Design the sequence.
């Protein structure tokens, strides 16, 4: 049991989520092992984005459990196994383990690229400023933006902003990274540079859960492709299997529309 | 026309000590009441954002009360009515070796309380103008609510708040005249005192009007500078300035570098 929980970074069990009486997630279970790259695909409205937002508690869930590093997210387990909502401080602590990259980048507009990256390490982890700066410069170099350190987000292209956002998330040294349609808000010509950075990250062994419409990326980088439809996980498997021999009729219908 | 130019020029250019005290008090009361209003407004705005009715209901009541009654009534109520009712009396207090009369304390508190209600709404709107994605980004980086507010949301809200805040201070400068009713010798009461001795009402009220114009104009220049410096939400400050609104940079700026 202990060895298994070491292996699993993200463990979602029967996750239910509703907005009012509209049920978005109808019991989704997903396990992600260390170093694995899982790509979630599915039609819009299928619940992919909602699901990864639930993983780091940007959305409350109405049922099921989410564990990260073997620890229940957002809830403390009492001795008798019942769940109580965790304190804000603990939830904030748990989120540090999971980096998140948003569709709309969400860089802090009042800070330079460098300041965006050092903000959380200094403020949240208490890293000394000099050390945070050094690390931030290395991260900027890693995403190919060493020369943009002093630029404000509004002075950067979408692709550059998204790469800064990836560096910002990496600065917290997360156990896993969540990508919520990271290239959907980008101009076509800058999509490639972001995917390149993500591929590099996958090659470096980062655990990743990616929601995307980039089937090429899924095919090339994913260890496992997961298909969601109407709030249900309908099929999962290695990319070649999903893309070449999908078994579920709804997967076939979806893929025939997008490929 | 009964107008004496000599009196006019004399009081405009060589104001007596009574006038200068009035001018000083007007500025002092405005600044302190505004500061109090900002602090109250910020606290009220944050409480108002809470979903907990124990926090947001008192704020709604406070804003409703302050905006629904005349400021003049609030001032008299706080200083005179409370004392007359035997509930609370403002006593003169010695602060840093300086005697602060009770009516000046009441003036600052009454104006500040009133201002707090308006600032609460302004700050709430400013916070509301910050993109939701900023909260999510901050949260996903493991920030607690307090850090998120202080480092991410408020600095951005500040840019939206600056223009209406400037207007509020302009109004505040002029509203200080109301505290003359509780005997605070600010500009207006000083003028009244001088007129009752000299009977040069026209000249002296013209002078006091010009004084206020001068104050609000000076403030207007400062406000324009503030807006140029901080009030831009789309265009970033030049990289050289590179300061966060509530961080090291501002403090340096406030200290005059």
Sequence:
């Amino acid at each position: 049991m202990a060895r298994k929980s070491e292996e699993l970074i993200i463990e979602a069990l029967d996750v239910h989520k509703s907005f009012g009486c509209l049920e978005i997630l109808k019991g989704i279970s997903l396990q992600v092992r260390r170093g694995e790259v899982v790509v979630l695909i599915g039609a819009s409205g299928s619940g992919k984005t909602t699901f990864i937002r639930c993983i780091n508690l940007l959305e409350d869930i109405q049922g099921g459990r989410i564990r990260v590093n073997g620890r229940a997210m957002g809830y403390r387990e009492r001795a008798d196994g019942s769940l109580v909502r965790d304190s804000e401080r603990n939830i904030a602590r748990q989120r540090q383990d999971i980096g998140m990259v948003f569709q709309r980048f969400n860089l802090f507009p009042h800070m330079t690229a460098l300041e965006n990256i050092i903000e959380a390490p200094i403020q949240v982890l208490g890293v000394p400023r000099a050390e945070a700066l050094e690390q931030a410069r290395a991260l900027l170099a890693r995403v190919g933006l060493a020369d943009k350190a002093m630029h404000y987000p509004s002075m950067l292209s979408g692709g550059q902003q998204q790469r800064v956002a990836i560096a910002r998330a990496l600065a917290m040294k997360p156990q896993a990274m969540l990508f919520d349609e990271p290239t959907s808000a980008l101009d076509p010509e800058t999509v490639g540079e972001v995917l390149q950075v993500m591929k590099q990250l996958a090659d470096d062994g980062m655990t990743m859960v990616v929601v995307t419409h980039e089937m090429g990326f899924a095919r090339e980088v994913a260890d496992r492709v997961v298909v969601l439809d109407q709030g249900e996980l309908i099929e999962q498997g290695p990319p070649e299997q999903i893309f070449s021999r999908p078994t579920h009729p709804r997967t076939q219908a979806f893929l025939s529309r997008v490929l | 026309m009964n107008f004496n130019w000599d009196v006019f020029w004399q009081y405009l250019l060589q104001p007596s000590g009574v006038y200068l005290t009035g001018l000083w008090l007007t500025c002092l009361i405005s600044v302190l009441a505004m500061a109090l209003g900002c602090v109250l407004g910020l606290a009220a705005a944050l409480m108002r954002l809470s979903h907990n009715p124990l926090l947001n209901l008192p704020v709604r009541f406070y804003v409703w009360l302050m905006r629904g009654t005349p400021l003049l009534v609030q001032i008299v109520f706080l200083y005179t009515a409370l004392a007359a009712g035997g509930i609370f009396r403002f006593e003169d207090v010695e602060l840093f070796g300086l005697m602060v009369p009770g009516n000046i304390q009441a003036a600052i508190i009454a104006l500040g309380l009133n201002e707090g209600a308006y600032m609460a709404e302004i700050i709430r709107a400013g916070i509301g103008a910050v993109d939701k994605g900023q909260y999510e980004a901050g949260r996903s980086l493991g920030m607690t609510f307090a850090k998120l507010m202080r480092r991410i949301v408020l600095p951005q809200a500040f840019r939206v708040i600056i223009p209406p805040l400037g207007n509020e201070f302009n109004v505040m400068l002029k509203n200080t005249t109301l505290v003359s009713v509780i005997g605070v010798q600010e500009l207006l009461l000083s003028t009244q005192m001088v007129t009752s001795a000299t009977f040069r009402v026209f000249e002296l009220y013209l002078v006091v009007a010009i004084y206020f114009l001068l104050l609000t104009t000076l403030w207007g220049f400062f406000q324009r500078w503030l807006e140029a410096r901080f009030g831009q939400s789309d265009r970033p400050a030049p990289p050289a300035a590179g300061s966060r609104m509530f961080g090291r940079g501002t403090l340096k700026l406030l200290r005059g570098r």
Summary: Residues 17-49 of chain B form the longest helix (33 residues).
